[in-house]
Give the backbone structure.
Amino acid sequence: MFDTDLKEWRKIELEFARKLIDDKLVALELAPDKPFKDRDIKTTTSEWKENTYEIKHDIVSDTSGNVWFEYYCNDAPSGVYASKADYIVYKLGDKFYSIERAKLLIRLNHTNKTQVKWGDYNKSYMYLVKKDDFIKLSKEI
């Protein structure tokens, strides 16, 4: 199951990478094909500014009305709390939404959310945030 999910996640990462291509982009690097990494995509612009992105895909947000944020798994911080990326990007439906990781972590502390235990044999702890609330916090790409 994880290998199948990994292939789907890679497709989503490539789809987002295509959206980043513009005249200022001089380099775009995808993370190595391994399950756990510090970021999914790294870009460099013509001004030599580097940005890194962690890409997530919530396939049930359209039906659930929520967006999930994993924060703890296998007795360690995980998901957006373990990522080292500058930006967290979620694909919801057919759109991508981005927010600076630091800003997201602060706002998650002050946003209405539900805590759930789910996925990975019930070893993952997640926050569920109303989809509309997340969209207000983020920027559509």
